[in-house]
Structure to design on (410 residues):
């Protein structure tokens, strides 16, 4: 079952890293660029020393009040990328889904505190279908806000073992045997109904759930369809209201939902799963239809930086009041996750993502007005956490190299 285990990891995870290349973006200061390049390369070399394998590429795009910089460091046998290289940013997608629902709330189309069984405002249509397939545990207790902050208790059939597919997830096994399977939110939710799966009673805990976000994405599609008078998907709303040409900050960011839409535009970065010192699985094309609303997005590092920076500054589609709602209260131990957003000390607010051999971090620090995107195009099958922490380690290292506060003292 080695190959199935590998496929399962591909479906869960996202980060990148690589061989040394020094790229200047918009700021001409060579001393700062050299310091950033050195920090990125040192981080990559440290990861390679720990896992005993070459990292395809480790990258950062950082913007401060003084300017923007980019650096890519590539491991032996690989090439660096650029700030305009397309890549899959995985669970950072959750932030876009949350932004969609918050924007809909600003327009009076939805209320975060509504139950998912309530009617869409101004209609006789419920937020989720009133059908047997959607008869999930605690359905009438789950609010839309709970879906976004992972407190709904919705079981994750994309990450956790499901009866009949154990010890793997429903999506992992289904896609292993049928790579081009067209997933729907309804079929994934139906696994919760069939097996009556739940983590806990809604509002009594927090548990990260891709399936919870699949439900949120379905809600966006149903609301938008009602207002448009024709069938719409979450991807349509994202294009029309969040990132497309007619939005406040137009950006080339895409969210494929069809099983047939598997390729990235050129130039693109493939993901890599490091199986051993001599074996690497490279993933360039992939069916992302099982990850709609929670992990199907792709763009460039420059675009993703512009998105998180303008969004969190209240200069994009959301008002500052909605942005504050998105954040979680850092003065309390719980909840640890806001609405598609979390907080890291000395990095600020944002999200991360891991999927098919790519890992990404996007953050905005409001205290110092610093935004950054880090990306590693590899995950290690044996020592996953080492490659996982590389995306935060390189962010802290670069901040320190630029004279800003870095990794907090333990």
């Amino acid at each position: 079952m080695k190959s199935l285990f590998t496929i399962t990891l591909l479906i869960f995870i996202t980060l990148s890293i690589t061989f040394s290349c020094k790229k200047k973006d918009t700021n001409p200061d060579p001393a700062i660029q050299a310091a950033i390049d050195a920090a990125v390369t040192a981080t990559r070399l440290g990861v390679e020393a720990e896992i005993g394998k070459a990292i395809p590429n480790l990258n950062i795009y950082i913007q401060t009040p003084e300017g923007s910089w980019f650096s890519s460091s590539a491991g032996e046998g690989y090439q660096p990328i650029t700030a305009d290289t397309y890549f899959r940013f995985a669970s950072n997608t959750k932030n876009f889904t949350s932004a969609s629902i918050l924007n809909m709330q600003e327009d009076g189309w939805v209320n975060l505190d509504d139950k998912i069984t309530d009617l869409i405002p101004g209609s006789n249509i419920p937020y989720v279908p009133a059908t047997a397939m959607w008869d999930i545990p605690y359905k009438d207790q789950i609010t839309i806000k709970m879906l976004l902050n992972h407190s709904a208790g919705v079981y994750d059939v994309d990450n956790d073992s499901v009866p009949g597919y154990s010890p793997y997830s429903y999506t992992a096994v289904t896609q292993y045997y049928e790579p081009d399977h067209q997933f729907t939110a309804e079929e994934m939710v139906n696994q919760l109904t069939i097996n009556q799966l739940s983590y806990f009673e809604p509002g009594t805990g927090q548990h990260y759930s891709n399936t919870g976000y699949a439900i949120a994405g379905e809600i966006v599609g149903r609301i938008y369809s009602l207002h448009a008078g024709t069938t719409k998907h979450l991807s349509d709303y994202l294009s029309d209201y969040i990132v497309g040409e007619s939005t406040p900050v137009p950006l080339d960011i895409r969210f494929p939902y069809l099983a047939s839409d598997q390729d990235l535009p050129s130039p693109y970065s493939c993901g890599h799963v490091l199986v051993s010192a001599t074996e690497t699985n490279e993933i360039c094309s992939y069916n992302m239809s099982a990850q709609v609303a929670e992990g199907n997005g792709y763009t460039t590092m420059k675009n993703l930086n512009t998105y998180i920076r303008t969004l969190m500054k209240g200069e994009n589609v959301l008002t500052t009041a909605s942005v504050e709602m998105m954040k979680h209260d850092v003065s309390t131990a719980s909840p640890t996750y806001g609405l598609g957003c979390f907080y890291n000390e000395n990095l600020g607010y944002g999200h991360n993502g891991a999927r098919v051999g790519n890992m990404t971090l996007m953050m905005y620090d409001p205290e110092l007005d610093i935004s950054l995107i880090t990306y590693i195009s590899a995950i290690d099958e044996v020592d996953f956490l080492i490659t996982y922490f590389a995306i935060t380690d390189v962010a802290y290292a670069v901040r320190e190299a630029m004279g800003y506060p870095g990794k907090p003292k333990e």
